[in-house]
Amino acid sequence: MLKKRGGFSLLCVLVAFSFALVMGCAQPPTEEMAKADKAIADAKTKEANLYASDALKKAEDVFKKAKEQVAAKQYKEAKQAAIDTAALAQQAIAAVEAGKAKMREDAAKMAADVDKALDELKTDVAMAIKKKLPVPQEEVQAAIGKWGVGLATLKDKLQGDKVSEAFGELKAMMTAIGAKKEEIAKLVASAPAAPEKKKIK
After folding, report:
1. When you count CB atoms within 10 A of the terminal residue's CB, does the N or C end of the chain come out lower?
2. Domain residues of the chain, as ranges?
3. Tens of pLDDT along 6-29?
4. Is the pTM of this model over 0.85?
């Protein structure tokens, strides 16, 4: 009789333990999700969105999947996805300095290209004026002067922390200068050719 009672008690304990285990596994991974969310926020604070955007996007994509799994009550999978998210966010943070250095290098090359494009534009404008073409001289020269000052400012920015901002402004400047060069080139191309001088026999 005691054996039966003992066996029954043991069975009850095992069932209760199994039930508790199942219930424990069925809980949403709240702590892991919170850590993952914070890890992504920390990565953005450290400018991973500017200098390690690809790595950060991977973390955000995995976190989005984790949220979907929580909604679908796939808590085990969601927990692992949240853990992976935090790890990927840390990788993004680690890649920030290298990304910033690469962007600074690319921006420095672009600044040199802008400098060259400005010199070419000045030459094109001078040629158009020499040919007495209807060039808006004051407007173009004011733009060239503005770009020259802006370029010097952006070169200073590249030496500081605003590398991404300088890179974006350099791209916009290069586009604007290119458009002005094209405008002057069309003006020169549409100009009538100078009449040939008759040879004196």
Report:
1. C
2. 29-94, 100-189
3. 554 554 445 444 444 444 457 999
4. no
